[in-house]
Amino acid sequence: MKILVTTDFSLNSKAAIQFAANFSNQIKGAELIFYSAVEMMQPASWNLSFYKKYVTEEKNRLTKDLEKFVKSALGTNKKALLGCKYMIDFTQNTEQAIIEYAAKSKCQFICIATNGAGVLRKLMGTHTSYLVNHSTVPVMAIPSKYKTVAIKKITYVSDFENLVPELNKVSKLGGLLKAQTEALHYARMGANHPETIKKTKVFAKPAYTGVKYNILETNIEYSLVERLTKYIGKQHPDLIILFTRQKKGFFEQLFLPSKAAELTFSTKIPTLIYPKK
Fold first, then answer.
1. 104 lies in some domain
2. What angle separates helix 14-27 from helix 163-177, to the nearest 10 degrees?
């Protein structure tokens, strides 16, 4: 397993580095690629030969700075650095460069820190929003103030559509992390509706016995974010998993219209977003 860990050398980005290192240690063997995309264009007054020389020297300098920055972020937790790579990429489009490098390197995840309050609020902004809506590689969004802990409890928020392919991913990850895993579903038609009950039968399959489903009634007086905020405040999962439809505005439609997106939902909780098939 490969994880592309993005950083812009800011203090906020250290959270992603620390999370990825802990994640790698927990599953025993993930290869970490610490990556920084630096926007650069050739000045009109520079000839190509001089520019290429400058790029080579600058890449060498920044690669050393990146290694130093990562090591300072991890302190004594150096185990995850075994076999890791450091990559500086000069580009004119940071988000697209991240996506292309992750795909080219066959990474299983992109790990990026979010700034400020709630993760879901900040997923609406700049880099992370673009990655969530365009990357074929799943994105781990890590709150900038996240304090590293072992992942022992996972909450997979499910709409109960495409359950089998999604459960394949969720159950596999939960098994690797040896974490207690639940599928949380808010039933629009009610928890005891025949269609809802029918869909729960998939959890009886041997491959998914490690995932327990939890069906709650939908209270239309509250937005999904408000319901999740309350639920997470009580249950304290260590990782939230979502699946989103890309390029269709699903993510924005789901969270942005509600003032609840301003709340501190998952302020301290990493969120893993898969593209929905």
1. yes
2. 80
